[in-house]
Design a protein that fits this description.
Blueprint (H helix, E strand, L loop, with lengths): L3 H8 L3 H9 L6 H14 L5 H8 L4 E6 L5 H16 L3 E6 L4 H13 L4 E4 L7 H9 L4 E4 L8 E5 L2 H13 L5 E6 L4 H16 L9 E3 L4 H12 L7 E4 L2 H13 L9 E5 L13 E4 L2 H18 L7 E4 L2 E3 L9
Parallel strand pairs: 1-2, 1-3, 3-4, 4-5, 5-11, 6-7, 6-8, 8-9, 9-10
Antiparallel strand pairs: 10-12
Length: 334
Amino acid sequence: MATIVDVARLAGVSTSTVSHVVNGTRPVSEGARRRVLHAIQVTGYRQDSVARSLRRARTDSVGLVVSDVGQPVFADMVRGVEHQATAAGYTLLLANSGEQPEREARSLDALVSRKVDGLIVAPVAHSAGQELAAIRRHGTPVVLMDRLGGICTDQVGVENTAPLRDLVLHMIGHGHRRIALTAGELAVPTMAERHQGYLEALYEAGIEPDPGLVITGPGLAEDTRAAVRAQLASPDPAPAIIASSTETATGVLRAAADLGLRIPGDLRFAMFDGFPHVDLVQPRITTVTQQAFEVGSSAMQLLLRRLNGGMSLENKTLRLKPTTTYRDSCGCGS
């Protein structure tokens, strides 16, 4: 196996020059750099990343734990984290917690055992915040992504309460005073914040909230489908529904299809998060869209700030503003 000495001898430079070219630690003349890269290619030299990480007390890797990587919004966040991590020279290790606290705990333990330099976590409902706090106390930086609160650390997500409030007020402006909300799991901070926006809109409009119009639970599509079917088949069905997430929106649309209801003719509808290529869906759905890629990118930037500046930096919380696009499904096109 080729060594750094072999590369230096072939390139006619010192081993320290080879190290500077490989690690980018000091400027090297273009001629010497070309000779070193050519020598690396000829000899097949591969840097010993394990030995390098031991010398630097870093592994150049970061861990990312999300609750459901299959959801479009989380997939975009992962892409944002990975894009920023790769640009900074870090390898991303991804774990999917499946909305289960036990799986989240195992994932965190596995990533910490692999000596990742930092962690980005979208905590599950009922997440063991003490564990994340302990990891941070022991020197591993932690950034919370999407689901804020729980521990004192760097965090990034979107504004949830005001956009949902405005969406409900928009529905009320269409003349609807009975508006259902598929709220999902309220132990998840983002869902709780969106539910709060729903309540604020009703209070602002002088409407007494009806708990029967708020559909809670695990927030999975099939659970939501069953609950929405029951609501829409009741003697006094809601004429309008707002979904707090893509997953619950799927349940609403399936329930409406089961009952033969047309949107927006029989049921007005709007949602938070949205589907990929939403403009191709008929009817076109009114959607609050968060910049998921930017959330992931910002989370990695916060982690890099911590890795480069140390644990003594003041905690930082970022809230990105989503955009709302009004389309046919809420009645705007009719």
